[in-house]
Design a protein that fits this description.
Strand content of chain B: 25-35%
Shape of chain A: globular
Number of strands of chain A: 4
Largest sheet of chain A: 4 strands, mixed
Helix content of chain B: 25-40%
Shape of chain B: elongated
Order of helices and strands of chain A: EEHEHEHH
Largest interface: A-B, 23 and 31 residues
Radius of gyration of chain B: 52 Å
Strand content of chain A: 25-35%
Oligomer: heterodimer
Structural class of chain B: alpha+beta
Distance between the termini of chain B: 164 Å
């Protein structure tokens, strides 16, 4: 059982893209670290992805982080997308009216296929 | 020749031999030699040297009689015309002495370089001249030229022979002087080198007396000149200082490496804290000493090099003190405690006494922290009060003028943030250790003062924020829920975490155009910012709701207000407007980034609401009302995500558990009580997020 408030973050670079993989809970107690990871991920207009597949729980503070990143991406002209998480996590996007935002979500398998095709 | 004449000439030779003993510098030797030659043997004389490389150099000239100085200068500048068949050029070329008993203008023309040179030679009024090469160690090292005329004398062959004798002595004198010059040059070069060394160098003889010291040594030891060091009697120099090792142990002369070396040891370097007693000037000096032995293996001298490590040592101390003080100052929000710890740190390295004075409510300075070092002595009781008054006056002036004071054993710096008036003063004093403060101490004190001011300011700001937060928090929650005819309201609010941390949850219920608005909201973030945002949200909703009546229009107003704020201000809201139209009662529920409300009918909860974006996220949003029929005994339960996010032993409370909890709820009060009990039973650890719940129930019996 994963303890609440536990979050592991990993930053990977794939080509010019940065992927922040979160594993654990994104909530009030961990969101600051997640924000730091996002700050570190941003580089020279390369796309930034947040991998939520291993996130057990996310609250509105995580959602706020994602909305902020989305708006920064729009303003600064880089791509930001999320690898969708568990149904519980996706429920949060639903509540926030973001479930239908196709640009926000990306299936990581299509992403790697696309980059292999390059 | 008269006896007298002979005697004079022997005396002249003897004098020259005296000069030739090699102890005198070349330039001085030449001057003295020419003085003996003129006027005793000549009215005009010049001395020249020729180096091994054949370079001709006129090293002296002397003329007796009127216009002497001008003529001497002229002669000194003269160079012999090499190809002239007579006189000096001939003597140098042939190595044989030349005598011209009767000098004619023709002679002069032959040796003159030009008209000006001819005029110079004529002005000497020469009657006879002698030119004698100087021979030493088998080579021509120079030449002596002598002339007579103004005295009425003439030279004859006898004079030539004397001149030849004279020249051998002169050659010897010059040669010795040259060697001496080379030797002196070496000593001079060494002295020049030592003099210009940045490191202090002191040379002690085998008995330990100081034989040499360079100016750097004088500077380092705080004395006016090198002579003060070299003239000092053994031991008297040491009495000028208080010398301690790194641990503060007092050292005597015999502990120093140079004296250890004199005693035959080979000591390692020693770092000492050197305080000049008279001025209190403090330096950190690294003493290194090397014994030098002569060919027989006996100690001939000890060379000590003293390196000034004051800056390094102080930088190290400053760094440590600032780091520790920084830690102390940031460790507590009780600034009295922080300042006290800073004062204690200050007396462990920077000063003997430290006081922090701050402006009180009446503007007077009050002592808020004080520390006395281990080595400091208490002042006599009678004196203390008076000194205290003086110190307070100085501190008051520093605070008033925002100018630091450095005066010997006292430093007073303002406690001030950049560009702001001082809030107090940091007072540092020296007593027992006897040393005085300097500019580097002042810099360090200033930095301490600045950091202390920051700590105080932070603590004050924090206290202020806490106060603001408390006031806001009080204003966020309605003191009591309104009475709504035909309805019953109940609510729950659980604040999370620290008592000063105002959460962002709120609820409210108020009358609007054509009905009542019931609302819960959640502001992202915590603390004073969140509290301010909560306040803004709540009052915007109230005002807009009352004026507009429509829930969507109300949310749009808040969205617009949030979009105007700098940065991203996100608020989630669940808003319901109850409309009582006689028999038929409806509830319009609008969600904005918020989980659904629950409509409980006959004990069965159903989620209500259409998901839509947070308020504050986008300029425009699609917030859509969902209308439910509100029958008697129906309840509408609005809550914030603190409920469903409650941390349990293994998982979060979640929506499903909330539905189960509300299953069978018999009314508003029951619904709220069930949620409170369920969350309390489920929660594991401290409450992480605020919880706000508001439930409204349509009373079964109309009035």
């Amino acid at each position: 059982v994963r303890r609440a408030g536990h979050l592991n973050l990993e930053l990977r670079r794939i080509g010019d893209a940065s992927v922040v993989s979160a594993c654990g809970d994104i909530d009030l107690s961990t969101v600051a670290r997640a924000a730091e990871a996002m700050d570190a991920a941003r580089s020279d207009r390369g796309p930034v992805f947040l991998d939520l597949r291993e996130v057990g729980f996310m609250d509105t503070s995580g959602l706020r982080l994602i909305i902020e990143e989305q708006q920064r991406a729009a303003a600064d002209g880089y791509r930001f997308a999320v690898f969708p998480g568990s149904p519980k996590v996706q429920r949060l996007f639903e509540i926030a009216g973001l479930a239908g935002d196709e640009a926000l979500f990306v299936d990581p398998s299509t992403l790697s296929a696309a980059s292999e095709g390059d | 020749l008269s006896a007298r004449h002979e005697e004079d000439r022997f005396a002249l030779l003897a004098s020259i031999d005296e000069v030739a003993d090699g102890t005198v510098l070349l330039s001085e030797t030449v001057a003295r030699l020419l003085e003996y030659v003129v006027p005793a043997f000549a009215d005009v004389a010049t001395l020249d040297t020729i180096s091994r490389e054949g370079v001709f150099r006129r090293i002296g000239s002397r003329v007796e009689g009127p216009g002497r100085e001008e003529l001497e200068k002229g002669l000194l500048r003269r160079r012999p015309v090499p190809e002239a068949p007579v006189g000096l050029p001939a003597a140098l070329a042939s190595g044989e002495s030349q005598l011209i008993e009767r000098v004619t203008d023709e002679h002069l023309r032959t040796i003159a370089a030009d008209d000006a040179d001819f005029a110079l030679l004529r002005a000497l009024e020469l009657r006879s001249v002698l030119d004698v090469p100087l021979l030493a160690r088998g080579r021509i090292v120079g030449a002596l030229a002598c002339g007579v005329g103004t005295s009425g004398r003439d030279y004859g062959p006898e004079d030539l022979r004397f001149a030849e004798v004279l020249s051998t002595r002169l050659a010897l004198a010059l040669d010795n002087a040259g060697l001496s010059a080379a030797l002196t040059g070496l000593e001079q070069r060494l002295e020049v080198t030592l003099t210009n060394l940045a490191e202090a160098v002191i040379v002690r003889d085998a008995r330990g007396s100081i034989a040499f010291a360079n100016p750097a040594a004088a500077r380092l030891l705080g004395v006016a000149s090198v002579d003060e060091i070299t003239a000092a009697l053994p031991g008297t120099l040491m009495a000028l200082y208080d010398v301690f090792d790194e641990d503060g142990r007092r050292l005597s002369l015999t502990d120093l490496p140079s004296m250890l070396a004199v005693r035959g040891e080979r000591p390692g370097p020693l770092l000492v804290n050197n305080i000049v007693r008279a001025t209190g000037e403090q330096r950190w000096l690294l003493h290194k000493a090397t014994p030098v032995f002569d060919a027989d293996g006996a100690l001939s001298m000890v060379i000590s090099v003293i390196e000034d490590l004051t800056e390094v040592k102080r930088a190290e101390r400053a760094q440590r003190l600032l780091a520790e003080a920084g830690q102390a100052l940031s460790s507590s929000l009780d600034y009295h405690q922080s300042l006290q710890r800073m004062a204690e740190l200050a007396v462990s390295g920077l000063a003997d006494r430290c006081q922090v004075l701050m402006r009180g409510g009446n503007g007077e300075l009050e002592e808020v922290a004080t520390a006395v070092g281990e080595s400091a002595t208490d002042r006599p009781a009678g004196e203390a009060g008076e000194v205290r008054q003086q110190e307070l006056a100085v501190a008051a002036e520093v605070v008033e003028t925002d100018h630091a004071r450095l005066a010997g054993r006292v430093i007073v710096v303002p406690l001030a943030l950049v560009g702001q008036p001082p809030i107090g003063a940091l007072f540092l004093g020296m007593t027992e250790s006897g040393r005085t403060f300097d500019e580097s101490d002042l810099r360090l004190a200033r930095e301490l003062g600045r950091r202390a001011a920051i700590a105080v300011e932070n603590a004050r700001l924090y206290a202020e924020r806490s106060l603001i937060a408390t006031i806001l928090q009080r204003s966020l929650l309605p003191p009591e829920l309104p009475e709504i005819p035909g309805f019953r309201l109940d609510s729950l609010y659980v604040a999370a975490g620290e008592q000063n941390e105002v959460g962002g949850d709120f609820y409210d219920a108020f009358e609007v155009q054509g009905g009542w608005m019931v609302v819960v909201g959640d502001v992202a973030g915590r603390g004073a910012d969140a509290a301010a945002l909560t306040s803004l949200s709540r009052y915007t909703l109230r005002t807009a709701g009352k004026l507009l009546g429509d829930p969507v229009a109300t949310l749009e107003q808040l969205n617009a207000a949030l979009r105007e704020r700098p940065g991203l201000s996100l608020v989630s809201v669940c808003c319901a407007v109850l409309r009582d139209m006689d028999v038929r009662v409806t509830a319009d529920v609008v969600l904005a980034g918020h989980p659904p409300a629950f409509h409980v009918r006959a004990g069965k909860p159903e989620p209500v609401g259409e998901f839509a974006p947070f308020l504050g996220a986008y300029d425009n949003g699609e917030w859509t009302p969902v209308t439910v029929q509100f029958e008697p005994s129906d309840q509408l339960v609005l809550y914030t995500d603190g409920v469903i996010d409650t941390v349990g032993e293994e998982e979060r409370f979640g929506e499903d558990r909330l539905v189960a909890t509300l299953h069978g709820a018999a009314g508003a009060t029951d619904a709220v009580a069930r949620i409170e009990a369920a969350v309390r039973a489920f929660a594991h650890g401290s409450q992480a997020d605020d919880i706000a719940v508001i439930a409204v129930e349509r009373l079964p019996v109309r009035r």
